[in-house]
Specification:
Length: 388
C-alpha cells in the first residue's frame, strides 16, 4: 500500500520529535474507544521497531523532568540536544480484521536544514502529502516577537513551501496538500492555573499565528491555491504542568543571560542566536505537586494525526475521482499496466479498505468527529477544499 509521507517542518529546538512521541500516545485514546457489539474499535496504531525505540527515548526524556528532584521554582531546558540528521518515525494504522495497513512515514528533519540545506527541505515538501509546520510559541509571543524569525525561520520556510508548490503542483489536477500550523510550547499562553485550557488564550494564540504567517497564508488562500491546499491551525500542549520562563544563551559551554542590565535583549549575530539560544521552563506553581506525583500531561497531541488520517481518506477518494479513463484502459494491457500501475492504482489500497467497507467508513466519520474546530476548542480550519 502507498505510504503517506508527513514532513515535520520547523526551526531548531521547537520540539518536533517530542510531539511525535506524544502524538502516538494520545491517539490511543481516540482509536481505542469503548467498543460495543455495534461500535467496535477497528484500528490499532503500531510502530516499526526502530521507531518504537525513538519514541520511547523521547518519552523518557519528558519523564526525566518529573523525576522528583526538582524544586518548586527550579527551571530547566527542554531538548538541549537537537538532532543533526534526518530521521523517520514509521507507523502502521492496522485494521483489526484486515491484513493490510495504512503506512505513515513521519519525516523529522533538523531545523538547521532550513538554513543549510534548503534544496533538500524543498524536495521533502514537494514529495510529502502532509506538512506539519511546528511553531515555537514563546519566540512568537515574547519580546514583541523579536526572536520569532530567528527561531522559526518563517520567511525561509515560506519561500521553500511556495517553491515546492510550484506551477507543476498547480497544474496537476490530482495534487493536494494538507498544511497544519502547529504552535508548540504554548502552555504559558493557553493553560490556566487550574490546568484547564483557556479558550481566550487559544484564540489569542491562533490570531497571532495568522498575523505572523500572514504573507504565506494570503498566498495559499489565493484563487490559485484555494482548491489545492487544506490549511488548519492546531495548537498542542506537550507538558501541561510547565510554562515558559526565560531565555538564556549558551556560550563557551556555559549559560548566560541574553538581557543587558536594563532588561533588553543583547544584540547577537543571527546565526549565533539561532544555534545557541535556549528556552528555559519551570513548573506552574499551582500544578507543581500534582506534576511530580503523576508526571507530564499532554493535551491535543493526537489532533495533527486525527487531521492527517481524515485528510488521507478524503484525498484517496479525491484521487480515485480524478483518475483518467485512459489510465484504466491502459492498465488492462500487461506491460503498460505494470508501468502505469503506480499511477492508475494510486492509493487503491486505501480505497479498498475504507470506501468499500461500511464499518471503516463509519470509523473514519467517528475520527472526523474527534477533530477539533474553532467553535469548540480554539482550533481553526482556514481552508478546506476536500471538506475534511
Amino acid at each position: 500500500m502507498e505510504t503517506i509521507s508527513i514532513l515535520m517542518l520547523g526551526g531548531r529546538r521547537c520540539g518536533k520529535t517530542t510531539i511525535l512521541a506524544n502524538m502516538c500516545e494520545n491517539i490511543k485514546n481516540v482509536l481505542h474507544h469503548d467498543a460495543t457489539d455495534n461500535d467496535q474499535t477497528l484500528f490499532t496504531l503500531n510502530k516499526e521497531p526502530e521507531s518504537l525505540v525513538k519514541m520511547a527515548k523521547a518519552l523518557d526524556q519528558l519523564d526525566s523532568y518529573f523525576d522528583g528532584h526538582l524544586k518548586r521554582y527550579d527551571e530547566f531546558v527542554i531538548d538541549d540536544n537537537p538532532s543533526t540528521m534526518e530521521s523517520h518515525v514509521k507507523l502502521r494504522l492496522q485494521p483489526t480484521n484486515h491484513g493490510d495497513a495504512l503506512k505513515l512515514d513521519f519525516i523529522d528533519i533538523p531545523g538547521e536544514w532550513c538554513l543549510d540545506k534548503p534544496d533538500i527541505v524543498t524536495e521533502h515538501i514537494r514529495k510529502s502529502q502532509v506538512i506539519i509546520l511546528a511553531i515555537d510559541s514563546p519566540a512568537m509571543m515574547e519580546e514583541q516577537g523579536a526572536l520569532f524569525e530567528y527561531c522559526n525561520k518563517s520567511g525561509d520556510i515560506s519561500k521553500m513551501i511556495l517553491s515546492a508548490l510550484n506551477s507543476d503542483f498547480l497544474k496537476d489536477e490530482r495534487s493536494q496538500k494538507l498544511i497544519l500550523l502547529v504552535p508548540l510550547k504554548c502552555e504559558k499562553y493557553i493553560i490556566n492555573n487550574q490546568g484547564d485550557c483557556s479558550l481566550d488564550g487559544m484564540l489569542s494564540l491562533t490570531t497571532m499565528v495568522k498575523d505572523r504567517y500572514s504573507s504565506l497564508l494570503k498566498t495559499l488562500q489565493s484563487d490559485e491555491y484555494r482548491r489545492k491546499v487544506t490549511l488548519a491551525i492546531t495548537p498542542i500542549v506537550t507538558i501541561r504542568e510547565v510554562r515558559w520562563a526565560s531565555y538564556s544563551f549558551k556560550k563557551d559551554g556555559a549559560e548566560t543571560s541574553i538581557y543587558d542590565a536594563k532588561g533588553n535583549p543583547i544584540a547577537l549575530d543571527a546565526h549565533e542566536l539561532y544555534t545557541k539560544l535556549l528556552s528555559r521552563y519551570g513548573f506552574r506553581d499551582s500544578l507543581f505537586d500534582n506534576a511530580l506525583k503523576n508526571g507530564p500531561t499532554a493535551l491535543y497531541c493526537e489532533q495533527p494525526l486525527v487531521y492527517t488520517l481524515v485528510y488521507t481518506l478524503k484525498y484517496a477518494l479525491y484521487l480515485q475521482d480524478h483518475r483518467s479513463a485512459w489510465v484504466d484502459a491502459m492498465l488492462k494491457i500487461p506491460i503498460l499496466g505494470a508501468i502505469l500501475g503506480f499511477l492508475g492504482n494510486l492509493w487503491a489500497g486505501i480505497i479498498n479498505l475504507f470506501r468499500n467497507n461500511d464499518s471503516y467508513e463509519k470509523e473514519f466519520k467517528r475520527l472526523s468527529n474527534r477533530k477539533m474546530c474553532k467553535e469548540a476548542e480554539g482550533y481553526e480550519i482556514l481552508q478546506n477544499p476536500l471538506n475534511i
